[in-house]
Amino acid sequence: MSRNNRRSRSDFPDNATVMSPYTLADQGSGGSIGAYLLNRAKPHLPPWLGVGAAGLAGALGNWRWDESAAAGVGLTLASVALSGATWWIGRSTSTQRRLHSAITVASGSAWVTAACLAGPMAGPLDDLYLMGGPVLALSWNVRMLLRTSDPSGESGDKGLLEKVGLARAQIGAAKVEPNRVTAPVALEPGEQTNEDVTKSLARLASALDLPRNAVRYTPDPGSERRGELVIVPEDMLSEVVEWEGPSNVGGSIAQPLVIGRYDDGAPLVIWLPGDPEAGRNGTHVLVAGGTGSGKGDAALNLLTEVVSRRDVIVWFSDPKMYQDFAPLRPALDWAAEGGASTEIMVAAVEAVIPARTRWLGAHGYRQWVPEAAETQNSAEHTCRTDGTVCGCEGMPFLVTWFEEAANTLRALGDDAFTGIAQEARSAGVSLIVSLQRPSYDQMSTSTRASLPSVLALGCDPRDEGFSLPDEVLAAGAHPGAWGNRRPGYCYAVSPGIPEDRYASPGRTRRFTHRAVPVMEMLATWSQRNGALADPITAGAAVSIAGTAYTGRPDENDPSEPAGLRVVQEEDAMDDQNGPRVDPEDAHIDPEADLPETEEGDDAPIFGQDSGRKPTPQEARELFARALTEFEQSGQMIVGPVDFLEWCDRNQLSRPWVSARLKEAAIDGRLEATNTTGRWRIVPALTAA
């Protein structure tokens, strides 16, 4: 017989004898069949031997203690004690077995007591013996047959639960799906809680010879002793799946974003906008994972899904200079590379939120929905007080993404995103923060609490609590077990995902060099077909960032970015309203010649006694030109350090610059930032 066709002893019940078919053929027909039948009957003989022993005990007891009052008392007490001991000993078994054992012992001991005192043939005792004895013996035979033929019943589940310390727990009918078994669990009332099951998951996985994260438990929120046990016998994530393209090009951002798959093969999806019909809120996402955990690929999976949708714009900050995201950069409405440009993006997002919220409220939207991105041709969503159709341009969804956010948090403070995270969802804005270790020394607790969704990849075991909620970790999630050994493995917790999926591991798709041409094609498609920033969003951004925000090139006129178009429209409005000149400068003739040089002009070093110091008016004009230079170059966050080269070029001192910064702030040309010594330039249009 070949090795593959052999059956191991573990395939048979412990009480069965393994026999080869060839053994019967080689032996004689008489004795061999009898031996086989005897071996098969042996496990069922003990109940019958017990019946025979009871009859013999009754006959011998009657010969010894016939009509003895003292023996009657002793036998009665012994019968009661034996029945009680049987009930007490069976407390660790199932209720059914405990009751069956107690009834059998009580019936047998009562018959033996009566037979010893009155005789086994007295009255109905002989009939009771002949009828009741076989019934009790057969009941145990039937129990044994059912136990042997159904290993998933009491001898299977109950034995397994007993091994892990949950002997009294009850398992209901299991729901079997492809590579997933879900079974309801009811614990012993008053003695076991859901926490006991959570603590036993590691032992249960060991008993089933499965990895720790293959066994999960989801408590019933309405009960402390009920829940669902989920077992995934095969890890379907071990096979690497490469990214081949987005799942729904041209769809709405309100539709699910497919970023990978679960360990049972189901798609791993996330929603960003809310859905009032489904009762789902909009969300912000935290992408967390250690070095080498596949966080970059996870971000690419999510970003490619976002830019493939028709009604969304993306503002993206990446201090790593778009090392991973360069092919997708043309699809972004605003791309910042860290530092001052990211700082101004954060300020712009803060300004955009109230502007968008005001527009949505004026058009009758309690939250952003896909209809808000379309031209407002419905009287139900009009901003006019008379109820007529307003025809306003739609407002696409806005995703603000801060990659390697630890860099930004170090520069701006741990609460840099707190206000955005708390207020942006109602404005149709989703905040995505990506960093390696979302610990509380990097991100404030208020910010972390305002990020309802998380995509948690492999990490240090000590960092699990920073990424996932305690209840998800208690249900069996364990990202610390992966570290950087399984890139792309993750847990997803987000509105819209069933809670029993929170502790189910998934895996994102891998991006290789073969994905680059597809990403470039996707970026080109987004340029041609994706949404442009609406006037409200672009206008609010320009009011803060000035020329630092240009927007994505218009499909019809690639040379004219959306942000600049808004600036030009505002310029045209200002031209119609008249020139923008300060009243104190109205007497200056712009065509007049500059005054002649005076003594001391060859040494204009401020802070020294020699040389002629400029008048306050000249100082303001000189510094205003410097601010204009920074604004035109797109650098909207400045401080004394940014004026070093300018000071050398104009032979000015740093204390003089610091004084001018304060004066410009008083005049409204600068605004203080969260960082000491840093100022945000107010665009000239806004200042005017």
Automatic annotation (TrEMBL):
Compositional bias per record (Basic and acidic residues), positions renumbered to this chain: 581-590
**Which residues are listed as membrane-spanning?**
45-63, 69-90, 102-122
Compositional bias, Acidic residues, is annotated for 591-602
What's in the keyword line of the UniProt record?
ATP-binding, Membrane, Nucleotide-binding, Transmembrane, Transmembrane helix
| Protein known as | Sporulation protein SsgA
GO molecular function annotations of the record: ATP binding; DNA binding
Domain FtsK stretches? 265-466
The domain of life is Bacteria
Positions of ATP binding: 289-296
Which InterPro entries does the entry mention?
A: FtsK/SpoIIIE/SftA (IPR050206), FtsK_dom (IPR002543), P-loop_NTPase (IPR027417)
Report the Gene3D superfamilies cross-referenced here: P-loop containing nucleotide triphosphate hydrolases (3.40.50.300)
Q: State the residue spans of region: Disordered.
A: 570-616
